Amino acid sequence: MTQPLTGNIRLLKTIVIVLGALIVVSLGVVIVTVYKRMSQMTAGDAAPTVAAEPAPVAPGTPFTAPLLDLPAGARLVDSAVGGGRLVLTIALADGRSELWLLDLANGRRLGIVTLVPSAGD
Length: 121
Known about the structure:
- There is one protein chain.
- The protein is of the alpha+beta class.
- It has 2 domains: 2-45; 50-121, no CATH class.
- The chain has one helix spanning 2-40, and strands at residues 75-82, 85-91, 97-103, 109-115.
- A 4-stranded antiparallel β-sheet has the order 1-2-3-4, with no helix packed on it.
- Strand 3 (97-103) and strand 4 form a beta hairpin.
- The chain crosses the membrane at residues 12-35.
- Keywords: Membrane, Transmembrane, Transmembrane helix.
């Protein structure tokens, strides 16, 4: 009765050893691949950033921003600066809001995003 079990145990031991070796080899491949990709990464391959900050303006350089005409009854609610851009949140008289995107280098308006309340609100 012990004879058939011995053969099965040898087969199971062989399978466990082979699968263990495959796991070790696979883990080695993953580690080597990650290492190679990280060592080959250059500054151009890095994750993109929001935007580069604009070059500083020399002291004493005059800066005149263009006039921005707000619609009648509109008011400035908020502003945010980042990536060489200025975002103004404008509350309109009819309840809608707009986001105005301005370029800080020249004050030019790059675009307007209109926000409207959803029908469920």
